Amino acid sequence: DWVMGDYISEAVQKIREQVGDEEVILGLSGGVDSSVAAALIHRAIGDQLTCVFVDHGLLRLNEGQMVMDMFARNLGVKVVHVDASEQFTGHLKGVADPEAKRKIIGREFVEVFQAEARKLTRAKWLAQGTIYPDVIESAGAKTGKATTIKSHHNVGGLPETLGLKLLEPLRELFKDEVRELGVALGLPHEMVYRHPFPGPGLGVRILGEVKREYADLLRRADAIFIEELRNTVDPATGKSWYDLTSQAFAVFLPVKSVGVMGDGRTYDYVVALRAVQTSDFMTADWAELPYSLLKKVSSRIINEVRGINRVTYDVSSKPPATIEWE
Ligand code: XMP
């Protein structure tokens, strides 16, 4: 629309003035904020921008491919795709504690990103998809107002280490505005209105030790859940259950339970489905999904994902439970 078009040309102008003919790097995560930042900066300076996409092996099904298709193929953005899954899995071996896993994933992420950034010797700027609520939150954290229950991994300190100037074109925007901007810049609606996904990814949705085998099972179960949420429309509102929930995902439980399939007995893993409704993610209600939807998801997961023979639905609200299981 007109207002957004105006906003874009102003933002583009500002980025060009700031950056001049220097080069910029940006860590693309597949999330909304870094994606919109990338699209905006690319609009402003084209090939002076290089994105680095670190795949830690804890992404959702086909997510790496989707990010590459959208940015590299459709938008023509320069993207360096780093497959670091072996490295991450290696460092996570034997580690079961949630905060320890978060620390390792955060640390490795910074390490891999830095190594890539150092190869781009001409870069003078580090771009980040920081949005207004992040600015507020980190200000709060510094004055001790915010209590960090789970350490959210970010790339704080990176620009200093790399000797880069910081470019944050979304700093003044709220989430809704970032989404509108993303759509106006040509990013697919489906991508821009995606549920949030934590930085440590499936690393905190596989309880205890992370294993490649668990991640592969979880990815497939999660994809089925999300597909059915997207495809099931609530007649009362005309919206899909994906849009009616704030966050929904599957969690891998590394316990085995007994089942029966055909003439045989199975002894396989369990997944829990989690779907919540919330306005601020500080408190959340579990979503009252239709039984027919739960039934379909459960039967599809058990039939299609060999290795999982039981599906449960999480009916805990926050507080006292958290949205993630770790
Ligand atoms: P909890 O589980 O604390 O989650 O109720 C609240 C919101 O924060 C997200 N979350 C994270 N995001 N790194 C992130 O980037 C993390 O370590 C992390 N832990 C939780 C969670 O997905 C939910 O949206």
Automatic annotation (TrEMBL):
Protein EC: 6.3.5.2
GO molecular function, one term: ATP binding
Pathway in which this enzyme or protein is active: Purine metabolism; GMP biosynthesis; GMP from XMP (L-Gln route): step 1/1
One cellular component term from this protein's GO annotations in UniProt: cytosol
Binding positions for ATP per the UniProt entry: 29-35
Alphabetical UniProt keywords: ATP-binding, Glutamine amidotransferase, GMP biosynthesis, Ligase, Nucleotide-binding, Purine biosynthesis
EC class name: ligase
Catalytic activity: XMP + L-glutamine + ATP + H2O = GMP + L-glutamate + AMP + diphosphate + 2 H(+)
Residue stretches in coiled coil: none
Oligomeric form and interacting partners: Homodimer.
Function text: Catalyzes the synthesis of GMP from XMP.
Protein name, UniProt field: GMP synthase [glutamine-hydrolyzing]
Organism: Caldimonas thermodepolymerans
Positions spanned in the full protein: 206 to 531 of 531
